[in-house]
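Morning. Coffee machine broken again, so started the prediction first thing and wrote up yesterday's gels while waiting. Chain of 451 residues, entered below exactly as on the submission form.
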Amino acid sequence: MSGCFRCISAALGLTALTVLLTACSSSGAGEGGASDETGTGGASVQSPPPAPPNPAGLVDGRVNAALLGTHVGRIVDPASPAPSRAGGIRLWDAGVAWRELEPAQGQVDWALMDAAVSRAQAAGAHEILWVHGSTPAWAAKDPEAPGLYGPGTSSAPDEAAYLEILRQIAERYKGRITAYQAWNEANIKIFYRGTPDYLAELTAGAKRVLDEVDPDALLVGASTTVRAKGPVKDWYDRYTTSLAEAEWPVDAMAVHLYPPADQGAEDRADYVRVMRDWLEARGWTGPMWDTEVNYGDRRDFAKQVVVVPQEQAAAWVARTYLDSLALGVDRVYWYSWNDHLLGIDQVDPVTGATTTAGQAYLTLQDWLADATWDGCSGELVAPTGTRGAVTTCRITTAAGVPAQVVFAHRGSATVELADGATEVCRLDGSCTGVSSPSLEVGEAPVLVKLG
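Came back before lunch.
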């Protein structure tokens, strides 16, 4: 996203997105996400969504810590705040874009990438994802193309140059950088001005390079947004068509599920359902990654400035990862730990101290990483839009303790605790003993230990 102008186009509600998806049927596919009639503001979904085709974010039934990803702005700067732990880190707006690594042909500043990878590893990242793109002027087909990061950065690159820097990075960081993304938000012209077909060609070439140099590394398709006007109907439709014709030369497909600034976690859950159905209709049934997400907006050009209060922010941070597990998103990368562009801050912009929302991210890792996941029941699985309805997700923690993660939707509810409940833990990291057979829960998930 970066100082990302991804909502330069008009923001859309979920109904508008569904209309755009339906319009894709003129190409012979793309109707899968249009049947659920959803509205803006977290309105109900009229029919229960299908179960995800494969358990998302799991390895042998356990939650893969890599699901719980984030971004660290200017990670190459040791003074830049970073989380004490992170399941995964996406290297974007991190100081290691292609234009920064290789400003002149053949002159690669490896010190930048060395610093970024080492710092990501120091945070314990199980997955490090480097994003290709942001073309240096010397490799640009149109060096004057206007781009967010300067002339030429949005230009389609020379294919040989694009593949050569990828080869060098994959060779140098084999086993350390675990995944690569073909491009960032390529449906927006400030990031990419080439054709979808050409980017699909680059994507296929990148897959060939990785299969040769580091076959264990994953390739993620170029991301698109759902906020900006027409990303699926036009650009993403053509990109996925070209990838399908090339027999899907990727290991995962990426979307950016930022809802409009006045929407929250409930709305994002609807976007997850729509986009997964749409990708399946296009023929992709593999992993879907959400490589950028946040809520609200505070940028100078924002049509609506929304700063999310910290208690609400903590609830939405936790919901983002829990919903992803339940609804079939394999990786999530929060944008961003330390950039202050959108509505939720995870560190204080002045002191760098971890905020309530940042602590929620850290606590959720303690709850979920390497936990056995047994799925969810209730409102999230079969949404009705009922205020105060409850979702219960069942896990066994990494320490072997059976537990439930419980939260309410748009309000609060009183729930009866399961037999054997011993402790209730909250997103601030605190736990208290059970003193009553019932518990009032709100939108902030709580962990109820059962033994």
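The first strand starts at residue 58 and ends at 59. Going to sketch it on the whiteboard this afternoon.
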